[in-house]
Amino acid sequence: MSPRAGLTPDRLTEAAADLADEIGFENVTLAALAKRFGVKDASLYAHVRNLQDLRTRVALLAGGELIDRIAVAVAGRAGKDALTAFAGAYRAYALERPGRYAATQIRIDQSLIAGTPALRRTAEITYGMLRAYGLAEPDLTDAVRLLRATFHGYCALESAGGFGAPRDVQKSWDRAVDALHVALENWPQEENTDD
CB under 8 Å to 50, separation ≥6 — which residues? Predict the structure, then answer.
């Protein structure tokens, strides 16, 4: 493929992310991406190693976009205001960009992401928000896992139409965030088991 065709790793990653939002992240293939550009599959291998490499690139792109949204939302906020803004930005991204969001949930080799700016920024923003609740390790890690599990579970169920009760989904979301705030303010102390 000639350089004039304009394919670059970044352009392919962005196109794959768009494709993921259209057809689902699990349906993104090199063949589907090649078709979008009107080229043969083999042409893509000059820019990405394989499908796993492409999916990792999409995951990193999406993770960066998600934390950028969250950073804007939480700027200048603390406590419940920060938590509410964080949660709202997370949910909005998950619902507006479903394929990209799905990419953020894949397991990525830690050696590939250890030095990425998006990962550092995600940790800084998330842990910073939780430190305002007076949490320190190992409670910070436990709280991050609680938030991620709650937000992801809620968004996955909502996007799949899994909430059938007549209660407004937004009201349930707001109550869930309120409950998380209460949990964070009243975080249980871990018992010392060294005795």
Answer: 30
